[in-house]
Amino acid sequence: MGSVVINGAGSAGGLELPDQDADAAFARNAPRQRGNTRFRELEELIRILEERAVTPVFQPILAFGTGEILAYEGLIRGPEGSQLHTPTKLFDAATHAGFLTELNMLCARKVVRQFARLGLNRQLFLNVTPQTVLEVKDDVQRITRFIRDCGLDIAQVTIELTENQYISDRSIFRQALMLFRGAGFRVALDDLGEGFSSLRLWSELQPDFVKIDMHFVQGVSEDSVKYHFLRSLQHIAEGCGSSLVAEGVETAADFCILRDLGINNAQGFFIGRAAKSPSDLIPAEVSELMGSSAPLFAVPGLR
Question: How far apart are CA 240 and CA 66, in angstroms?
């Protein structure tokens, strides 16, 4: 039978346990370790909220119709070197701690202020959770006043609904969202194809924009199933009056397929990475492909 050495192999102070005992010891300590991690994350989250220590970055969204940047999505980063630097870890910690709306509103304020300071004369896609929409629905006038005071027009701002929460009462949520639409905000549905009941939400909310999950975008130039899926979505969008945004565009081949399919907009590293001060110009390679009308790539299996 094998053994596991803890605190120094073969040393006088070492502790040698049989495999079964070592497994049991690790199992007993795991919840404590996870608890310590959660506590450290909570401390860091509270520090970030108190110090407002989040940094906005902006990623461009290209409009195929004009060949120009349509909008920028406002994204967020935690402090450099922090265990909550990435947005996924930051918002996961806020969700577990019950501070999701507080963090979401802090980030939204930071994004709007910085977007206005940069003078980016484009649309702003502002990430908002369904929970936040419900919890701040009575503050729509105050929110619109804040945005105008920053120097932005409400028509510039698109509320991008993140698709990571289940909406238990769609009727109440739709009514709350109508308050924002009535104030002049546009609405985008994020990550179609992932999360909870995307197509049903599309039908019920009738968003101005629908962002297609990158799973269906990346590799579309080599996958006939993804190609047909995107073509079907484009057909639905035309009937619904929604504008599609293909997320995760990273190659020229996928870019050209999306262009030729008639997808309205694209976002991804091929077009531009998120940056604190993003360029208002598209890369030369993208510009060159926009100027070409010939299909440069063919999807295998399609005639």
Answer: 21
pTM above 0.70, yes or no: yes
The first and second tokens of residue 226, run together, are 């993804």
Q: Which two tokens stand for residue 1?
A: 């039978």
Between CA 3 and CA 6 the distance in angstroms is 10
Report the C-alpha gap between 48 and 45 in whole angstroms. Answer: 5
Residue with tokens 């049989």: 18
- Cβ pair 53, 107 in contact under 8 A: no
Tell me the one-letter amino acid at 274.
Answer: A
- Collect all residues with Cβ–Cβ distance below 8 Å to 153 and sequence separation of at least 6: none
Residue 171: partners with Cβ closer than 8 Å, 6 or more residues away: none
**pLDDT < 70: residue spans in the chain:** 1-35, 163-165, 193-197, 293-298, 300-303
For residue 221, what pLDDT is reported? 94
For residue 152, give Cα distances in angstroms to 116, 188, 207, 264: 6, 18, 21, 24
Per-residue tokens: 100: 């999701």
Beta strands in 108-198 (DSSP E): 123-128, 157-161, 186-192
- The token pair at 224 is 């006939």
Q: What region does 301 belong to: left with phi over 0, alpha with psi -120 to 50, or beta? A: left
Which two three-digit tokens encode residue 287?
């510009």
CA dist 195 and 170 (Å) reads 15
Output the pLDDT for position 13.
Answer: 41
Do residues 142 and 105 touch, judged by C-beta distance below 8 A?
no
